Amino acid sequence: MLGVIETRGPNRTDRPFLQELSALYRATTGDLAFAQTHYRGTTVLLFLCQLVGRAHNQIYRSHRITSQSIGRFFRNEIPGAVRTHLQEVTWSAIIFLLGLALGLSAIQFDERAASIILPTGVLNSIYSGHMWTGSIFSVVPAPVASTLLFTSNISVALLAFAGGLSFGLITAWILFQNGFMLGVVFKLCADYGLLGALLEFIAGHGALEISAVIVSGGAGLVLANALLNPGSYSRGDALAEQGRFAVRMAVGCIPALVAAGCIEAFISPSHFPVWFKAALGLTLGGLFWLYLLIAGKSGK
Q1: Do 50 and 198 belong together in one domain?
Q2: How many other C-beta atoms are found inside a 10 Å radius of the C-beta of residue 231?
Q3: 69-122 per-position pLDDT tens digit
Q4: pLDDT, position 97
Q5: Are the CB atoms for 178 and 156 separated by under 8 Å?
Q6: How many domains does the chain fold into?
Q7: CB 243 within 8 A of CB 179
């Protein structure tokens, strides 16, 4: 078994193999202790010392972070984790879209529902026919705004991910709430003649930002599924096993959210043509999904 793991590495072996190796390691350390007492100076003791030392190096060795390992992580492991859990990502999108639909419907039924979820300042701007974003970026410098925006976006995404530990309740609520808020804003802006201005503002960053939040929500649902359906594992073991995939999915969203925050601060409020913002947003959103669905399929 040591020969196999020394050749392949621990990442190329399955869980039963590692469990058997761990059991054999514990048994061999017991044999070594016995040999140190009763067979001092023998080749048996030397052999057991060498065997335990090799096994210890494989089981407890630290993994060096290299440029190759970082590249492999982003090239193979992140998109591989997303493809493995596309079902959870799909459910995340469904919850978000359900919130969006209900937000649109709520305003159609009673406009006062907007006061539940939108700040008073935003509502007053919409009612007066002015986009609320202009006042924000006229006061806060773009570099500061970009930092605040992507920090806020990352916080939402990471909370959606970590919310999976609540058996998915917090994750589902965050996805639904963000979808509901977007639906409310869309319907209000449409009613007060601001839909064009809203679409122009979100064209550059919206697709990338929403996609990253949905994938982060999918990561949270992976954690929730491990807790709700551990299978033959204990909940702790299932969480540890599936958590590796969930963490990869969440980490993969961080660069996308940073990019979305920068675009939202520097490009979205600027006077670039609408077609440029739309092309940029669709291109980045499309590349993000192509990366998740195609990258690393060759396994190289």
Answers
A1: no
A2: 9
A3: 677 777 788 888 999 999 999 999 999 999 999 999 988 888 888 888 888 877
A4: 96
A5: yes
A6: 2
A7: no
Per-residue pLDDT reduced to its tens digit, 159-200: 999 999 999 999 999 999 999 988 988 898 888 888 888 888
Return the closest-CA partner of residue 78 out of 223, 217, 224, 219. Answer: 219
d(CA 261, CA 265): 6
pTM for the structure as a whole: 0.74
Range of the domain at 50: 2-60
In this structure, what DSSP letter does residue 74 have? I
Amino acid at 3: G
State the CB neighbour count (10 A cutoff) for residue 121: 11
Q: Tell me, what amino acid is at 47?
A: F
Cα pseudo-dihedral 139, 141, 146, 149, rounded to 10 = -20
| Three-point CA angle 115, 133, 177, nearest 5° | 40
Structure tokens at 169: 């309740």
CB–CB of 168/220 below 8 Å?
Answer: yes
Instruction: Tell me: do 180 and 269 sit in the same domain.
Output: yes
Whether residue 248 sits in one domain with residue 154: yes
